[in-house]
Amino acid sequence: MPKETELKPASGATPLIAIAAAAVDTETTGPDATKARVVQIGAIGIAHGKVVRQAQLDLLIDPGEAIPSEASLVHGITDTDVDGAGSFPDAWAQFQEFVGDRILVGHSIGFDLAVLERECRRARLPWKKPRALCVRLLATIANPNLADHSLETIAEWLRLEITGRHSALGDAIAAGNIFAALIPELRKRNIRTLGEAEVACLALSDALEAGHRAGWAEPVSRPQAPAFQPVDPYAYRHRVGSLMSSPPVVVKSTKPTRQVIDLMVKRKISSVLVSERGTPDQAIEAYGIVTERDLLRRISSDAERAFDMPVGNIAARPLISIRAAAFAYRAIGRMDRLKVRHLAVRDEGGMLVGVLSARDLLRLRAAAAIDLDDTIEHARDAAELAASWSMLPGVVRSLIGEAIDPRVVAEIISDELCSLTRRAAVLAEQQMQIEGHGPPPCAYAVLVLGSGGRGESLMAPDQDNAIVFADGEPDGPEDRWFKKLGARLADMLDVSGVPYCKGGVMASNAAFRGSLSTWKGRVEDWVRRLRPEDLLNVDIVYDLRPAHGDTTLAAQFVEYAYDRAHAEPVFAKLLGEQMTTGNPFTVFGGLQLENGRLDIKKHGLFPIVATARTLAIRHGIRERSTRARLERLIALDIGGGPDMKAMLAGHAMLVGLLLAQQTRDIYAGIPVSNRVEINALARDQQAQLKSLIKRLQSAPDLVRDLMFASPATLGQ
């Protein structure tokens, strides 16, 4: 199987659509799990949320005893049919080879697990209960109002046709198709991952107790975190821009190869870039690359002419590149996936700024993150995107264990979110063309807003995105095309593991889609508003980051938005008036908790982020992250006292607490939230958190005090 489609072992974090599974069923000598013998095993694979029919297992088994006629009336298998069939140990070996480490899926699978375990014990074969899901229980969760949850009733509800009923393979195929059809139904109930499905099934105590009384095995297991995987933190702490060679060596495409070889020997470099102008000041598309290996291959195949040949004839195009702001692990992943040893480096505007070679990365080892880049950038559909995204919690947990600054970890999550959004946009655009809607009517950019745009995503991001396009009026032909694109992008991200934004901040909605002219008009409207309630969701637009498309459109938009907001002080003032921290304290000074947890995004992160953003807009600060904004405010002596410094330190602490809690919850099958379990914190952490939350109660007053004062005045 190619690397890009290879399915990783499932954990509680793996989306249901991305698990590698095998639908299974057994036919037996009777319905009593404590006595029944297996006479047939059927199994079929499930990958990327679909039944894979190319490989299947259908085995008859001689039970070593007569098959009762009542059982034969159900499944049609008689003693004659199993005469000469293999024994259970033979079948079990084939079954284990077929399913491997995949999750088992079946209807009332507790029965099948019980009889299989009993057969193994009888044959003195080792037994380890496999991880499994029961479609009967999943259907009960997805639609508790069905008259019953038999295979036939569930299939009828899902409009599925069953063939080969009461044969092991036929029922396995039916269970597999039901499982695939249940995935979107479960997603509607906010059950997306294997762990969440397991926890939801374990909550069906009546059904589980009934199975237990019948002698069935427990159909699901309680999710557990996988073994901790250490990583080399170097690749996660350094960005490409700090490792690249700059300025890059560029030669004209007409330069003879002999002279280029002499240049490479003299400079002790393993590659040169090639362009018509021979200068390092153009967009990345203008260049090709020639490496030592390219030269050796050409000399080997055409030695007589190679040395006098124009180097442009040898150069490889298009040039493979990476952003200077990307983390080093992403460069490792790209080189590994594409089997190259050199990457051109570009800035955010797509201009050439340097070259990165494999030699620059020799110290780095980042296998887990390599897989992130490899799979996201190469995913072919939403299921593969979901599989890629599900690997992120493991990387995050490892980085936290390596004591990497949690704000850097949040930047990595944000990079992956932008990468996911970019790939989803590419796939959505391809889908548009397949459906006959044609190519994009004009240049456009997909923007990631909010925490993702700031580089501060946590493990519970929703979709905060927008589209800006070059030309067109609201509800015009261009806008209607991008509305369709936005809808497909939203659907793709939702399936991939990034849910729809509950506040509607998505490009599929008209308010977050428009031409550059339309967006400028909106900005004018925002800065002239007189009521803060009219500015809902406006603030997160000031955290935007382009994820796909024409970055110049995004740059023009953000420059205009900041210029106009800075020129209208009342606008920043109104944004500041929207700040509310809520009171998380009891009358006795303790924290008000819900199920033992505190929403530290609402009471902690939000006032810090909003303070930094609002004051940055007011004072013309263009930094995007909360950390950079606070540091810039302090450097300008705007609120440079203990309050700002406490926010700076508190921001790192809060991000770290949330990431640790969220990764624990993901693997435990608990829906991820912004709430932290207070009693799970060390006593000193509780004290620090309480002190910070109390201090942040005055954040709105601080913003008002700093809104109109000058740096010189504030420093006195």
TrEMBL record:
Task: List the SMART domains hit by this protein, alphabetically.
Answer: CBS, EXOIII
What the entry lists under SUPFAM superfamilies is as follows:
CBS-domain pair, Ribonuclease H-like
InterPro entries, alphabetized = CBS_dom, CBS_dom_sf, DUF294_put_nucleoTrafse_sb-bd, GlnD_Uridyltrans_N, Ribonucl_H, RNaseH-like_sf, RNaseH_sf
Q: Give GO terms for biological process.
A: DNA replication proofreading
Pfam families for the chain = CBS (PF00571), DUF294 (PF03445), DUF294_C (PF10335), RNase_T (PF00929)
An example of a GO molecular function for this protein is:
[protein-PII] uridylyltransferase activity
Query: Which CDD domains does the annotation name?
Result: DEDDh (cd06127), NT_GlnE_GlnD_like (cd05401)
Oligomeric state and interaction partners are given as:
DNA polymerase III contains a core (composed of alpha, epsilon and theta chains) that associates with a tau subunit. This core dimerizes to form the POLIII' complex. PolIII' associates with the gamma complex (composed of gamma, delta, delta', psi and chi chains) and with the beta chain to form the complete DNA polymerase III complex.
Protein name, entry field: DNA polymerase-3 subunit epsilon/CBS domain-containing protein
